[in-house]
Amino acid sequence: MPFGSSAAVGSVPRIVADTNIYVSALNFSGTADRVLALGRAGLVEVYISPAILDEITGVLTRKFSWSAPRIREAKQLIGGFTVVVHPTETVHLVREDDADNRILECALAAGADTIITGDRHLLRLVGLSSCRSASSSSRSRFPRPLG
């Protein structure tokens, strides 16, 4: 299924947020939190996969020393505004960071209109498909698709 294939006129945009968007929102608020707030408000549908959730958990544990109860609370918060998809296609477009491929797989499974990321590997892929990518710091361009 190509990116953006499910978007209809007047429908809510479907987005996939990179792991770093969640980690930044949970630790620092700011722009990343404002992006996810669009999902909490129902202005966009935010899609996530179990692999992305596992990566979020790992980063919060390893890099920020979050406790198990705090991680459970974060997972409940994320689960309250995201739609879980289970990708069936495997992607190997990003060789430098295989975890970035999980973001692409989630976007494919969700029929996402936009991937929200600041990751240079993912941003470099813009133009290789009909997928659109937006940096979390480019608020003025979100949620309007880039292209």
Write up this protein.
There is one protein chain. The protein is α/β, with parallel strands linked by helices. The chain has one domain (14-138): 5'-nuclease (Rossmann fold, 3-Layer(aba) Sandwich), CATH 3.40.50. It is built from 6 helices and 5 strands. The protein has helices spanning 19-28, 30-40, 50-62, 68-79, 98-110, 120-124, and strands at residues 14-17, 45-48, 82-84, 114-116, 132-134. It has a 5-stranded parallel sheet with strand order 3-2-1-4-5, sandwiched between helices. Helix 1 (19-28) crosses helix 2 and helix 1 (19-28) packs across helix 3 (50-62). The radius of gyration is 14 Å and the shape is globular. The two termini are 19 Å apart.
Would you summarize the structure shown here?
This protein has 147 residues and is an alpha/beta fold. 44% of the residues lie in helices and 12% in strands.
Quick one: biggest sheet? 5 strands, parallel
Helix content: 40-55%
Number of DSSP E strands: 5
Element pattern in H and E:
EHHEHHEHEHE
State the end-to-end CA separation: 19 Å
**Top CATH class:** Alpha Beta
Unreliable runs: 1-9, 127-147
By CATH, the architecture is named 3-Layer(aba) Sandwich
CATH superfamily label: 5'-nuclease
Query: What's the total helix number?
Result: 6
Overall pLDDT level: 81
Radius of gyration: 14 Å
Q: Can you tell me the number of structural domains?
A: 1
What best-fitting shape do the alpha-carbon axes yield?
globular
